[in-house]
Design a protein that fits this description.
The chain is α+β, with helices and mostly antiparallel strands. It has a domain of 102 residues: Arc Repressor Mutant, subunit A (Orthogonal Bundle). It is 47% helix and 20% strand. It contains ten helices and ten strands. The strands form three sheets. Strands 6, 7, 8 and 9 form a four-stranded antiparallel beta sheet that branches. A three-stranded antiparallel beta sheet has the order 1-5-10. It has a three-stranded antiparallel beta sheet with strand order 2-4-3. Helix 1 packs across helix 6, helix 2 crosses helix 4 and helix 6 packs across helix 9.
Amino acid sequence: MNQNFLIIPITLCEYAVREKRKNELQLLCWLKVQCSGNFMLTNNLKNRVYNQLKITLATFKSRLAWLLEKSWVEYNEETKRYWICSFTIITKMMDGYTSKAVIWDYNEFDTFKAFVDATMITFIAKRKYFYDKQGYRCNLEYNRYKLYRKRTKPQFYPLPVSYLSKALGISDSSASNMKKNASNAQFIIVKKNIKKLDISVNEYKFLKDCHPEGKRYLKRGNVIYEQLPDSIQSYLVFKIKRNLVQ
């Protein structure tokens, strides 16, 4: 490929997280980078898979079989070649596809899965911020477009783990691991937020024992704090890819 980046649809990142298929998406993107739209299963390719993706031949064949089953990759019996479908074709086969995409600099594929996590965290955090600020039904499509086209300085977006897990249909523990992985790979910055409360120690004990979310309340010395949702800062670059919805 001539370009030094991939423009990956948000739809595929969301699917990969929901369906636990980040490994398969990683392989698809790796093939797009390494091959010019098609490839043969040569020893050279197998060695590159082993060295760059750190997976065995059996794992590679298993993931490739899944891509073939989903028609993300096609196989030609006559030429013995595999053909890699475009992102546009793949997203059109899926329900609820979107024109939004994220730019991936593919220097390090070992952090790709953390990148997918960071993509969905950033997307959902910005969407929540927009919904909270503008209202869900306030000229939605137009303002969504402005949100992702506007070049602004990165800022922190509040994002509770429970909100992230509900948005993606995954468990709270999985959502928490996503934040940890994305942060460790330095795709996002997670800032802890606490608020000082003007309450007594007895009131704190009551909240800690009786409030449904009592674990949010902390005591440091004689000062009581409320643990607020973490805030997310991300420098991932999103763009509108119009041909994904044509």
